[in-house]
Amino acid sequence: MAISLDKIEAMAPDQSSLSAATKIKPQAWSVLARNASGGFAWGECQGSGSTPYRVTLTLEDLGYKCSCPSRKFPCKHSLALMLVYAKAPQSFAETAVPDWVSEWVVRRRVKTPGKPEADKSKPKASLAAVAQDEPESPGDEKAQLRAAQQRERIKAERETSIRAGLDELDLWITDRLNRGIAGFVGDAAQQCRIAAQRLVDAKAPALAARIDSLPSEILALPERARADAAIEALGSIHLLAEAYRRQDHLPEALRHDIRRLIGWTQERQSLLDDAQASRAKGDWIVIATHSEIQPDKLRRIETWLASADKGEARYAVLIDFVPVATGGQGSPYLPGECFAAELVFYPSAVPLRALIAERGGAKDEVRLPARRLAEALRDYDDLRALHPWLGQVPMTLSGADAVHFSGSGLWLVDGEEGVALHPSQQDDVRVLADVSLTDITGLWNGRYFTAAMAETSLGRWIRS
Amino acid sequence: MTMDFSRPALARMRQAMLLGLAHNALPKGRDALTTLSLVAARRRCDRLALPSSDSAIARAPDGIDRAGLLPEAARAALLRLFAGKDGKSSDSIAAATARVIKSSGLKVHPFDYARLEGFIAQFAGDMGPQERTWLTAVRPASKLALPSYDDAPVDEHNLAQAGKAQKLSFLRALRQRDPAKAVSLIKQVLPHESAGTRVELIGLLGIGLGDSDRSFLEEVVTDRAQSVREAALMLLARLPGTSAHDQKLAQLKDRIEAKKAGLLRRRVVFSLRSSPKPQTAFDPLQGLNESTEWVEGLPLAEIAGLFGVTVDELIAGSVESPVLGHLLLRQAVLEAGPVDLKTFAPLLAGDLGHLTLAILSDLLPRLAGEGRRALLALAFRPGGWSSLPSYPVFASLHAALGEALPHEIAAELLQSSPWREAMRGGNDDMRGRWAEALAPLIPRPLSERFLTDVETVSRRAALYHRFLLTLPETRT
């Protein structure tokens, strides 16, 4: 990942942090160094404390760590180190990597080119990693067994709790039906909040979040579409509850999807270590980023990627969650940037969510194969047959024009086929109606198309 | 058991679910939740129907705006200035940027409209037709505030229906072009306007006031509203030969005190007598504002004649009195007569004072070309300052000037010791504010020089000049 000023600005939690970073004088840096392979850089910055703050930066994905007590992330020292590197990388001397740098790099889970090998003699950083350690002696086998039994017991309790929660959820939905969905739309926020809290208690956090975000999704739609959207959402949620109860009869991949939609998670490391997991290696382009604050005060950051594989486009989404309190604004990636990487996909009937298993260097360009709208819509319907709760799926279209219809807003039209642009971005994409589109990439959710990137007669358009 | 998914059946079920009557409309053998799931699944397969092609809105014609697009580097700089985390669109840098874009003849890239919406809305008047069309589409309310691009332009036929601002704007422009026509239109609309608007309409006659306006003004002094009568009398007093003019001269003579001064070099010095309002004695700026009308429209020769001295003697005797001196300077600039402005040099020596700034703010918008350059050269002399004026002074100056300083004056400012000391000392915040306030006043040929001073002081000031440097030289 090339460090650009735009990217640093995008990462800054606020303007004051950026201003403060620009005011850190070069003399404040007693050490500015990087490793020989250029994977990461570090510096020591004299702040208000007695000892300099130690700042580390990974150059590929702009990971950062600073020893200062700031509660802003990135802090001004991290931003300042990025700025120095962006403006004058030659001021970083190539030296041996100090322990405090290598320890932090090892703790990071994303593999960074040129990172030092983990020191096996040192303790693992995460509890999950500790849990996967080999038993050190036969005497520990009993402890291992006990721990396994404990895990099974907890899991079984959670299953019971979730099933009870789903039963209660069915009652709640029935109650909404009996009272009338028209009334529910007007009071969805309060009603959904209560239902979501009960599901959190029932240990089904993902389903709880789905219900909690339902009102905002409904209210984002035109008023005439809200009642139907509520019917669709509640029906889909009941179907999910029913599928969870019958998961043993469903295909393995779909079972993973259902459990994830309820709230079961898979450790990142276990996915990275899973040799059976689906992987894709290639050059990827960031087609869209999206950041939103969830009701649980976590910021959900989506980074949508695409690559060309044997004439077909392959898509993926990286999903990260960061506490809102850290001030992080969004994805560290900028739409349009390209890089080489190997992705590993979470098991799914329609594998989209992925992790970066290994990062490569920046790439100049990735051209995505495009399809006609009718073909892309058919494919989406096929995917939805595999995964009934499928949300947004990226597609790259050629031969479509953006057309503005009086009273109906903007649509993408390709012959007899057409998809409506999402109501929330009608103003942003209005300019596309006045240019010729070569191709357009966006996210289709079965009802609305959210344009993300387009090649046009006026150059590349990227969603702001 | 299959369920009836026909459109009428689904519509009935939907209606029942909306009203809470789903249990009455359930298909045989189905419970409410299963039916809900089936209806939802069926609905998910429906796509919104493509609207009829008859309702498609035609694309904007290619010829709507033939201006070229800003270069890529300028686009990036513009976005960093106005779409970033500190993308404020209300400061003098924003105004200067809009002005530069307008004068360059280039237009904002359409793909940046959404991110620059605040900037485009703030300076809609400086934007091209394509930007304004987009703005009115996404902000329908802004249509009213925009210049009449889409609306029928105001002319003499629809003047009565136009809003106050449009009416005044049209008549102001007409008065400069065709004073007699403007008077005839003002006569037409005047009886139908409120007293406040009538005062403003009469005030337009101040532009190019002449004897031909006299008869109309003499009619207006009988207006029913006192404020309108006063406005007309004020203008009549500027016309020689009227009784109001003579009265005004007599009043001015009472307000100016002439004294003999000097032992070796005897001379007459002039000053204003104390204002009838006590507070003005402590506030020269307010004193200036209040007394401007005392001399407005009175030729310097007539004022000098009141005291039996020449114009040069009047000026030489007044430069020690700041308020009177600045009043006479203002009058001399407006007369654009044979008076050598350098006579006022002693008045303007030293730091840039509030009175001088007020005079500059008043006069600069009225002057152009050489007259503007001469006044600036006289009044804006950084080499003589003991310290850099506060940053609002530069912001006010930019607002009055509406463009960058002439090259030689800006160069003198950047070389002056007050500027260098200000950039070396002081706190970061103050230096940043100075840099931002001064940035729009520095012309592009001095951008590189300015950047060396402010690069680490103010990101915004530096970005503005980086933006200037990205534009083709011939366009700025």
What helical percentage do the residues of chain B reach?
40-55%
Radius of gyration of chain A: 24 Å
Q: Which strands sit side by side, in order, in the main sheet of chain B?
A: 2-3
Distance linking N and C termini of chain B: 76 Å
Keywords:
heterodimer; A: 464 residues; alpha+beta; seven-stranded mixed sheet; five-stranded mixed sheet; 15 helices; 27% strand; globular; B: 476 residues; mainly alpha; two-stranded parallel ribbon; two-stranded antiparallel sheet
What's the arrangement of secondary structure elements?
The complex is a heterodimer of chains A (464) and B (476).
Chain A: H1 5-11, H2 15-22, E1 29-34, E2 40-45, E3 53-58, E4 64-66, H3 76-87, E5 93-94, H4 99-107, H5 127-131, H6 141-179, H7 181-186, H8 188-201, H9 205-212, H10 214-219, H11 223-245, H12 252-262, H13 268-273, E6 279-293, E7 298-309, E8 312-323, E9 338-345, E10 354-363, H14 373-386, E11 393-398, E12 401-405, E13 409-414, E14 417-421, H15 426-429, E15 437-444, E16 448-456, E17 459-462
Parallel strand pairs in A: 1-5, 14-16
Antiparallel strand pairs in A: 1-2, 2-3, 3-4, 6-7, 6-9, 7-8, 9-10, 11-15, 12-13, 13-14, 15-16, 16-17
Chain B: H1 7-19, H2 32-44, E1 56-57, E2 68-69, H3 72-82, H4 92-104, E3 106-107, H5 117-122, H6 129-138, H7 164-177, H8 179-189, H9 195-203, H10 214-220, H11 226-236, H12 243-255, E4 256-261, E5 267-272, H13 284-295, H14 300-306, H15 311-318, H16 322-335, H17 345-348, H18 354-363, H19 369-379, H20 391-401, H21 407-415, H22 417-424, H23 428-438, H24 447-454, H25 459-470
Helix pairs in contact in B: 3-25, 7-8, 9-11, 10-11, 13-16, 16-18, 18-19, 18-20, 20-23, 23-25, 24-25
